[in-house]
Specification:
The protein is an alpha+beta fold and 338 residues long. Helices cover 42% and strands 19% of the residues. The protein is elongated and about 115 Å long. Bound molecules: 3,4-dihydroxyphenylalanine.
Length: 338
């Protein structure tokens, strides 16, 4: 038995040594360790080994199996290494890597970042508020009477609970004044929602940027200076800015702001970019009624507010003709801003 085991082991190791591909190695493994393999068969002979020799023979069989298994593993590694080396031999390591394609910021993000950057330099801090609002913050506190068309079911998304999707970011004015005493100097970029027919200039979700400055003695001059500076920073230092009287429930006086646009190949034209005005004392009165400290008492403070559509600013800046391009995620469109 001992000699047989030695012979099988020697033969097996010799065969493994000459296996020069994975196929030959697998055949050899089966011939030695498989169900009918040489080592398997001789191991079956353990049954007939006299009791006093069992330990010794068992030990020998184990040693043989271990040696053979180790030989198979090292051969496998050797063949794998050879295959790897062969595969790598065809690779030109001096070839430059393929360029990674970078993503880029969406035009709306670019315009929002720029607007925030300019206004922060003037001391405005970021503020925000909920997109699901109540009528008080979206309308009542903003001096917008119950019969105002903006509150119409046709124009506003109402929930059964009576809450609504905010129709403008002006609600953040109210949220902020409820939460902090003057001076208040905030901007609030964010989404607004209206039940508009979707077309080249309207979406039912759009982006606004609200601003509010409240302190003692804030004047119309402050409003004009701030917003003129802002739009010149946005559209170029030569940009002409005009304030056209208008009406908003929450400001008095109110204005729409136009900038004069010089598009290539077109006669210059005025185009509306924002609404603004001096905060209506009725708004301060609504806040005053909510707070216990009278810090927004209409005879103590004045302020100005403004609101603009960021989608619109982006469209003007880059001559985008259809607002829907801003939400379609067409890579051919977006690539132009990379
Ligand atoms: N909330 C107005 C809108 O959505 C925009 C606006 C106008 C905001 C005048 C203001 C403002 O803060 O003073 O059309």
């Amino acid at each position: 038995m001992k000699e047989k085991i030695d012979a099988i082991q020697a033969e097996a190791l010799a065969r493994l040594a000459t296996a020069d591909d994975t196929r030959a190695l697998e055949d050899a493994r089966v011939a030695i360790l498989g169900k009918k393999g040489s080592l398997t068969e001789i191991s079956a002979g353990m049954r007939d080994v006299p009791k006093e020799q069992k330990a010794e023979i068992g030990q020998l069989l184990n040693t043989a199996r271990n040696a053979i298994t180790a030989a198979i593993e090292s051969k496998q590694a050797e063949l794998q290494a050879a295959a790897d080396a062969k595969a790598l031999a065809g690779i030109d390591l001096t070839l430059p890597a393929r360029a990674l394609s970078h993503g880029s910021l969406h035009p709306l993000t670019l315009i929002r970042h720029q607007a925030i950057e300019v206004l922060r330099r003037m001391g405005f801090a970021l503020a925000d508020g909920p997109e699901i609002e109540d009528e008080f913050h979206c309308f009542d506190a903003l001096n917008t009477p119950a019969d105002h068309p903006a509150r119409n079911e046709k124009d506003t998304f109402y929930f059964d609970s009576g809450k609504l999707l905010r129709t403008h970011t002006s609600s953040v004015q109210i949220r902020t004044m409820e939460a902090q005493a003057p001076p208040v100097r905030i901007i609030a970029p964010g989404s607004a929602y209206r039940r508009d027919e979707i077309d080249a200039t309207h979406l039912s979700v759009f982006n606004q940027l609200e601003g509010l400055y409240v302190d003692r003695d804030v004047s119309l001059g402050d409003l004009k200076g701030t917003l003129e500076y802002f739009f010149r920073e946005m559209f170029g230092s030569e940009t002409e800015v005009r304030f056209r009287p208008h009406f908003f429930p929450f400001t008095e006086p109110s204005f729409e702001i136009d900038v004069k646009l010089h598009a290539k190949g077109q006669a210059p034209k005025w185009i509306e970019v924002a609404g603004c005005g001096m905060v209506d004392p009725a708004v301060f009165a609504a806040i005053d009624a909510k707070r216990s400290d009278s810090s927004f008492s209409p005879d103590q403070v004045t302020g100005f507010a403004f609101g603009m559509g960021l989608d619109r600013l982006a469209m003007i800046r880059w001559g985008i003709k259809d607002i829907r391009l801003l939400i379609e995620n067409d890579i051919r469109f977006l690539k132009q801003f990379a």
